[in-house]
Specification:
The chain is an alpha+beta fold and 93 residues long. It has one domain (24-92). It is built from two helices and five strands; from the N terminus they run H-E-H-E-E-E-E. It has helices spanning 2-22, 30-42, and strands at residues 25-27, 49-53, 64-72, 75-81, 87-92.
């Protein structure tokens, strides 16, 4: 009976660890935040939740910065910047 409970618990734990290993978002540093604020401003927007996405995808092998819910005029947008703080995309929410 003990092995019936242990196996699903072990699978659940290993699945949780695998998912956390895939999620590589981290808060931006103060230096990155200052540069992102300028990049967001240059895009005609303000504010938003900032994080660095280190997923190493083929399109962005060095990672990318995500700014969610930035205000651009009267509408919220999700912005994506590369590691040189150049805008990659701007999508209305």
């Amino acid at each position: 009976m003990r092995s019936i409970v242990t196996v699903p618990a072990a699978l659940f734990l290993s699945a949780g660890l695998a998912l956390s290993a895939l999620a590589k978002d981290r808060p931006v540093t103060e230096q990155e935040r200052a540069k992102l604020v300028e990049a967001v401003k240059a895009a005609g927007c303000t504010g938003g939740e900032m994080e660095f996405d280190d997923d190493k995808a083929t399109a962005h092998p060095a990672g990318k910065f995500d700014v969610d819910d930035a205000m651009c005029g009267n509408q919220k947008h999700d912005l994506v910047f590369d590691t040189d703080f150049k805008m990659l995309s701007k999508k209305a929410d």
